[in-house]
Amino acid sequence: MANNCEQQLVEKLRKGPFAIQLDESTTVADKAVLIVYVQFIEGEDLKQDILMSVNLTTTTRGEDIFAAVDSYFSSQKLPYENVVACCSDGAASMMGKNKGFNSRLKEKVPHCIIFHCMIHRQALASKKLSDDLSETPATVVKIVNFIKGRSTNKRLFADLCEDEAHQTLLLHTEVRWLSRGRVLVRFVELGEKVDEFLKTHSPALSEKVTESFWIKTQYLADIFSLYNETNKRLQGPESNIMQCKEALDAFMRKLEYRVGKMEKGELQQFPLLLKQCRNDPETIPVSVRREFTRHMNTLQKEIKSQFADTDDYVSKESWVLDPFIAKVEDVQYLDCEDELTDIQTNSLSNKYFQVGL
């Protein structure tokens, strides 16, 4: 049955254009696995499916990844000219200029659009923290590992949190997009119990849990919660670059708004931080607020840098969002020109579009 489903999918891909997305990862058994997803049009619907999954038995260089994909394409007689786009993460094995998978693919398919995964780019932009701020999540990780890394500590802490909504902290996983925000929020939720536990079981770690530490932890929990909301908007089987760009634009505006509020000492947009300072922003030193402001400004710059090419691409495809203001001659897809002209000259369609019908 599996072979039959695979052959049906391959047959569809032989007949028309499709896009691919690659993900190479390591399993808990320490095996490197390459998964290739495809997206294609069937009738009037956009379809997605898994094309192939293969173990990379030795190295995971760009040449190895391309060899695995090339072998599959050859065995299934899939024409490279049907590949119109490729999305991958920013690893050197994928994006390398000379030996990366994408450069090898471009040699085969010059017209293929290469795109760096937007979710991965957003995750990269969030990693830059100042030295002072970076100490805070590092300390959180140490405390979480101390409590969860020993069975006795884990049981004692769970017993201490018996009356709380949660009885355990969360481990941080670097490769999980939402991990940092969730870890910080859970840590904050159980903050009083963490403080109590450390005073009894680890005086050395307890000394690190100062008022300044909690202020920075609450701020980061607020910021990464907002970050996670945006990340979720970037996900989903029907997500496209237009929607992703809108989600990022919204995040940038929210961040800019928060910068202004932080400079004025108004913390309504930072609920966890506001709770920590007992609704009195004046208890947070001006120097610390400036540090938070610098971090948000840096985050904005990193987002702009990571997505510098997105504006140009979206502007070229703006006719998808509003076909009535686009210039037909600017549309890249020749087979759409006549259909777009018919739509633009249909006054009834225009009225329906304006009212959202």
Notes on the structure:
The chain folds into two domains: 2-116, 2-Layer Sandwich (Nucleotidyltransferase, domain 5); 124-306, no CATH class. Strands 3-2-1-4-5 form a five-stranded mixed sheet. A hairpin with a 2-residue loop joins β2 and β3 (45-56). The protein has 357 residues and is α/β, with parallel strands linked by helices. Helix content is 57%, strand content 12%. α2 (62-76) runs parallel beside α4, α6 (131-148) crosses α11 (211-234) and α11 packs antiparallel against α12. It comes from Merluccius polli (Benguela hake). This is Protein ZBED8. InterPro entries: RNaseH-like_sf (IPR012337).
Quick overview of this protein structure:
The protein has 357 residues and is α/β, with parallel strands linked by helices. Helix content is 57%, strand content 12%. This is Protein ZBED8.
Helix content: 55-70%
Which strands sit side by side, in order, in the main sheet? 3-2-1-4-5
**What kind of sheet is the major sheet?**
5 strands, mixed
Supply the number of helical segments. 17
Tally of extended strands?
5
By helix and strand content, what is the structural category? Answer: alpha/beta
Oligomer: single chain
Number of domains: 2
The backbone outline, from C-alpha atoms, is: globular
**Spatial separation of the terminal alpha carbons:** 42 Å
Protein name: Protein ZBED8
Organism: Merluccius polli (Benguela hake)
List the keywords:
Protein ZBED8, alpha/beta, RNaseH-like_sf, 17 helices, Nucleotidyltransferase, domain 5, 357 residues, 57% helix, 2 domains, five-stranded mixed β-sheet, single chain, 5 strands
